[in-house]
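Internal tracking record. Fields below are filled automatically when a chain is submitted to the structure queue. Please do not edit lines marked as system-generated. If the sequence contains nonstandard residues, flag them in the REMARKS field before resubmitting.
Queue: standard
Priority: normal
Entity type: single polypeptide chain
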Amino acid sequence: MHLAQSLATLQLSPSSGVPMFRQLYGAIKQSVLSGKIGPGTQLPPTRDLAQQLGISRQTVLNAYEHLMAEGYLSGTVGKGTFVSHTLPVLGSSRQNRQGPQTGRLLRPLSARGQAFIGPQAVLNTHEGNPKAFRIGMPGLDLFPFDVWARLEARRWRRPPHELGYSEPAGYRPLREALAAYLGASRGVQCDPGQILITSGSQQALFLIATLLLAPGDAAWVEDPGYRGISASLRAAEARVCPVPVDGEGLLVTQGKAAYPDAKLVYVTPSHQLPLGVTMSLARRLELLAWAKENKAWVVEDDYDSEYRYTGPPLASLQSLDKAGCVIYVGTLSKVLFPGLRLGYMVLPPALVDAFVQARAILDRHAAIVPQIVLADFITEGHFGRHIKRTREAYAERRTALIEAIETHLGAHLRPGPADAGLQLSTTFVSRRDDQALALAAREKGIEVRALSTFYLSNNGAPQSDQLSGLVLGFASIPVEDIRRGAPALRGVLEKQDARTLAF
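SYSTEM-GENERATED OUTPUT FOLLOWS
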């Protein structure tokens, strides 16, 4: 088709909310980018094109002017208007005519890029309002948003000078407040200079894996355990080494026997995810002795230690470290709310400079206003009061869940340790496919997590040598929802029993 005829067939809509000149501009631009109009092609005179399209000449002039300003067209008085000769030849292949192909890369991802994708790298997200029995969530209904809003509004009335580029390590008063809090509540030995504020604990784990491990380096991880650490390790091209967990925590002897060359160990000693056990003192000392002897790093993920219901929070693993090998990772997602996206690391002094510089390269620093408001929230006593109030509320919800399991689910589920955390791990009285059950429960509006999905070697149904059960959250769910949810979950379990018997 001749160019003038082609442009004359453009579909312009006077009733559209987009100005006519913008519609014409966009249509010609797309024709150039798709290769329909090649470099050097002369466009129709403005008067002719306006007449063909039934629009004003000024509309065409405005469209041509915008295209010239952006480099798509060039022209001089008396010679005409042309597609710029400096544009590369984009061709007119079938693919160009149809536009970009979804789901198809121009070229493959790099080897490092491939490590970021795949089912083992997928992290869980939440959709919609909390429902029984969502895990990994605090009770948003308990957070003092009115206090937070007042503190933030006060800061906006006199904007702080830190609104420019700030310290990569984080807002200094927040680090000072965290150092004081961690020393008093967890026995963490540090000064503010050792604390690095991150965008959640997941970013902390990614920095650790990237900076401390070379491709192929071995790292112990708890099995079953937190999938986020294995995703970060794989992204760093490290070798993920699953080590079993028993009633005293990570089986250090098995780790030493199977992976003696490991450079890093990841543990959740205060409240193992997902089983809920606490690492014994003997096991902690054994791990630290091995790490010191082998010059290995130990990552202590202390994600919900504020919530212990049978006594005060336990001292941290970091407080026992005499060799400077423990990196303490904390998050504020479980104490405040996940959308805040603030976490922190307590680094051995030898690592501080390298991690701060890497943090700056990654994204300069965490959002500064939430850090400022959080510092005020802590120093003015709101943080401590919030932890006390939520610990009491979660204890009540935990009791309600334990009672609901005894009343409605005791024939099906056996609860594990329940003295800490925001969720409770259970195992089946008789073995079942927990992933199929979790899916059936979701279809009934009940959120549970299959215990078998926490195993690193699990790519399908639970394996015979792995625990099978359900992880049930209670912190984000009011007591009445817990009491309503338990009978509904029992109905799902009994329905699966009836289906099994029918076969």
